[in-house]
Specification:
Protein name: Propionyl-CoA carboxylase regulator
Shape: globular
Radius of gyration: 24 Å
Order of helices and strands: HHHHHHHHHHHEEEHHHHHHEEEEEEEE
Organism: Roseovarius mucosus
Keywords: DNA-binding, Transcription, Transcription regulation
Structural class: alpha+beta
Helix content: 40-55%
CATH architecture of one domain: Orthogonal Bundle
Largest sheet: 6 strands, mixed
Distance between the termini: 28 Å
Strand content: 5-15%
Family: Belongs to the short-chain fatty acyl-CoA assimilation regulator (ScfR) family.
Number of strands: 11
Strand order of the largest sheet: 5-4-8-7-6-9
GO cellular component, one term: cytosol
CATH class of one domain: Mainly Alpha
């Protein structure tokens, strides 16, 4: 297999500017000529091995940060945005999108924000009667999408919050995390009680009482306890992080604050160092990790997807949760696999079959149209309402990584990852999937010409040229 060249001009330029060095000084420290550095910063040349080693030795730079994760995310997002019919039937070639994402990431982000604003306006006009009567009808992304993109482009890793949660958990000296949290809240005059109520968590500020539902599973009560502790004890840290994010609306900021508190809770239940060591020790056995850290399978999967601390990174995982309609309700990828921002995921992916086999892990070897191969693990997740007649929420979750990490996963032990035919073809979404022969295709690919022959009918009513 050919070695992929590393084009990371934007990251190289950003590093030099952060260090406050001129191109001449930076080139001297890296041991290359000034013209050569200029060509690398403009992506006319790949970053050489010599430069990678010099970055690590001279500046202690985590060379994994040179990966093209952000660029690939932006390429995926731009392709989906350009699938919008407003752009016509002749979108820019993929090479141009990759060049834009690599050389002009700020321009790519501006384009995505502009398209998001257009979509928001279009949706409001579609419901004109409602929009005319609202004072907040503005041209901006939905708060939910804005927050999701914030975590997405942070690699789902928030360094300051993660470290704070780890310090809190380790300060207990082996004390159970729930007991430690209750003790810290008690020191602030807040008592914690359990009650037979449908509401998972309720904090009465005036009375100083935090009520948790006794109907919820122990791991859910533990998580909600830590979430409230984050809102009470880590308010300054959360607010500082929100200031850095610069959200466009108060609604987005409020949603993000809950998201950061959720992040703190998960990181406190599963402290980074101990959790990473345990995950590597048990080869990412989800059930063992869930038992060891008192967490649910979903919480463990989500935490594994956040292990991207510079200098101590875990396996780059993707993590997704879908509902029974196939709509993605949670998504994150530290891999090259990027999920559709809107609508459902590829129907050929095993996450959709998880509903058919409740309580079981499904394994899948999959290959995306770009030739990258993955191992994917899927399982259904049910969340009972806690009483007779209460609705049960059903989801399916999937966790996966590139197949080169298969040796570090217990789930890959009896899979033949060397056999090409063992990998099922999957995509992202039909409109940007390049596969010409797919029996599950719902709409034609935008970038390909169609041939319609009235006298013939195959799997599809057209041929993709």
């Amino acid at each position: 297999m050919a070695i992929q060249k590393l084009y990371a001009g934007a990251k190289l330029r950003e590093t030099r500017q952060r260090l406050g060095l001129t191109q001449k000084d930076f080139a001297g420290k890296l041991g290359v000529s000034l013209p050569y550095l200029n060509q690398m910063e403009n992506n006319n040349r790949p970053v050489s091995t010599t430069v990678v080693l010099a970055l690590a030795q001279e500046f202690g730079f985590d060379v994994t940060e040179l990966s093209t994760g952000d660029a690939e995310r932006m390429v995926s997002d731009m392709r989906e945005a350009l699938a919008d019919p407003v752009f016509g039937d002749d979108p820019p070639p993929l090479a141009d999108l990759r060049l834009t994402a690599s050389n002009a990431p700020a321009l790519a982000r501006a384009f995505l924000e502009l398209h998001s604003a257009y979509r928001q306006t279009h949706e409001r006009l579609a419901s004109l009667d409602e929009a005319l009567g609202r004072e907040d009808a503005r041209n901006q992304s939905s708060p939910w999408d804005e927050v999701r993109d914030f975590f997405h482009y942070c690699d789902n890793y928030i360094d300051a919050v993660d470290h704070a949660a780890e310090r809190f958990a380790e300060a207990g000296g082996g004390q159970a995390i729930s007991d430690l949290a209750c003790a810290r809240l008690a020191a602030l005059g807040i008592s914690v009680v359990e009650a037979d109520t449908a509401q998972l968590r309720h904090y009465d500020r005036a009375a100083g009482v935090l009520t948790l539902s006794s109907r919820a599973a122990p791991e859910s009560r533990r998580f909600q306890l830590l979430l409230q502790l984050a809102l009470v004890m880590q308010d300054q840290l959360l607010e500082a992080t929100l200031d850095f994010a610069r959200f466009q609306s108060d609604a987005a900021r409020s949603i993000a604050k809950i998201g950061l508190a959720n992040y703190f809770a998960g990181a406190a239940m599963m402290p980074y160092g101990r959790f990473l060591t345990a995950a590597q020790e048990v080869r990412h056995d989800l059930e063992v990790l869930a038992h060891r850290f008192g967490a649910s399978i979903e919480q463990v999967c989500h935490r594994l997807s956040t292990l991207q601390r510079p200098g101590a990174k875990g396996i780059p995982f993707f993590f997704v949760r879908v509902d029974q309609a196939g709509t993605i309700t949670k998504r994150h990828s530290a891999t090259r696999l990027q999920f559709a921002r809107f609508g459902g995921a590829c129907p050929l992916w095993n996450v959709h079959r998880a509903f058919e086999t409740p309580g079981r892990f499904l394994r899948q070897l999959a290959e995306t149209p770009d030739g990258v191969r993955y191992i994917s693990l899927a399982r259904d997740v049910s969340k009972p309402g806690g009483s007779f007649g209460a609705p049960v929420r059903r989801f399916a979750i999937a966790l996966g990584c590139e197949v080169k990490h298969a040796g570090e996963l217990v789930y890959a032990d009896d899979l033949d990852v060397s056999r090409a035919r063992a990998f099922e073809p999957i995509g992202i979404s039909c409109r940007i999937c390049e596969r010409a022969e797919c029996h599950q295709r719902s709409v034609p690919p935008l970038e390909r010409r169609l041939q319609v022959t009235p006298d013939e009918r195959g799997v599809l009513p057209y041929r993709v040229g």
